[in-house]
Design goal:
Structural class: alpha/beta
CATH topology of the largest domain: FAD/NAD(P)-binding domain
Strand order of the largest sheet: 3-2-1-7-18
CATH class of the largest domain: Alpha Beta
Number of strands: 18
Number of helices: 7
Distance between the termini: 15 Å
CATH superfamily of the largest domain: FAD/NAD(P)-binding domain
Strand content: 25-35%
Order of helices and strands: EHEHEEEEEEHEHEHEHEEEEEEEH
CATH architecture of the largest domain: 3-Layer(bba) Sandwich
Mean pLDDT: 89
Number of domains: 2
Oligomer: single chain
Low-confidence stretches: 48-54
Length: about 300
């Protein structure tokens, strides 16, 4: 039986596993692949090399440690987690059966796609789902953000300090808040309400976005980058029936990354925490240390 099993191979999961190993816990990390939402590099026509991802250097060091210790990882997908007395039983797609005394859930969240022409082809070629990761590639360029919630609004506010012009394409009128009022005052931000994206276009990379305007006009907006910031669905289904979640499915944790269920901790996008990679690295480390303390007290 393992001391700790981590589910998920993004920044939080990788860091939790490396931290647990350094704490000398019998550790297993189960993930379909490494990287979570940071697995693809952005390729932009007039940019040389690869973008710098905040926290990636540190994350690579942890990942290399796990690659070297192949007995602590299983590239598989967990299908069921069952609490049994004082431990947990896990089943996987490949038919593996594991038992652990504690868990870290770091399964991330699934971003909502646009489902329009050009999205799949241009993903990673100017179209991104992460402002934190890719905003730095678009210094002085025109970009569009698609969405209307606080995630989209904060993305626009961040991009406004880097890009030449930022278009916010919102599907519905925005509720007036201090942040929305601030966006309205930014000279390089244009908020287009009730806009419906129909296409993301370009040859080798993003060159424009097509949207239907409220008055029925179909408008082609020249941009070099498109950031999709629609609602995301936390991947909490494995434990949602017995671990407390909020109305949108985020696992509720305290300041120690602990859930309401003893021995179960959570970190990263599956919780309601910042999307910053560095924050997820810190939360992953914290969750493993909290699991260690939990085991010491038993």
């Amino acid at each position: 039986m393992y001391d700790l099993i981590i589910i998920g191979g993004g920044p939080a999961g990788i860091t939790a596993a490396a931290t647990a190993i350094n704490q000398r816990l019998e550790t297993l990390i189960i993930a379909a692949q490494w990287g979570g939402q940071t697995t693809y590099a952005m390729q932009v026509e007039d940019m040389e090399g690869r973008e710098t991802i905040t926290g990636e250097t540190l994350l690579d060091a942890f990942r290399r440690q796990l690659d070297y210790l192949d007995f602590v990882r299983d590239f598989d997908t967990v299908t069921e987690v069952t609490p049994v007395e004082d431990h947990f039983v896990l089943e996987t797609v490949q038919g593996h059966h594991y038992e652990g005394r504690s868990l870290v859930i770091a399964t991330g969240a699934k971003p909502q796609r646009l489902d329009v022409l050009g999205e799949k082809r241009l993903a990673g070629r100017g179209l991104s789902y992460s402002v934190d990761t890719h905003a730095g590639l678009f210094l002085g360029k025109d970009v569009a953000v698609v969405g209307q919630g606080r995630r989209a609004q904060w993305a626009v506010a961040s991009l406004a300090h880097k890009a030449h012009r930022v278009y916010l394409l919102a599907y519905e009128p925005l509720v007036t808040t201090p942040l929305v009022s601030k966006l309205d005052q930014m000279e390089n931000v244009q908020v287009i309400k009730d806009a419906r994206v129909q296409e993301v276009g370009g040859d080798a990379s993003v060159e424009y976005i097509v949207a239907a305007m409220p008055d029925g006009e179909v408008r082609e907006i020249p941009v070099k980058g498109v950031f999709v910031k629609l609602a995301r669905t936390p991947n909490s289904g494995l434990v949602r029936e017995w671990v407390n979640c909020d109305s949108r499915g985020h696992i509720i944790v305290d300041s120690y990354c602990a859930t309401n269920w003893p021995g179960v901790f959570a970190a990263g996008d599956v919780t309601h925490v910042s999307e910053q990679v560095l924050v997820h690295i810190g939360e992953g480390a914290k969750s493993a240390i909290s699991a260690c303390h939990y085991l010491l007290m038993r």
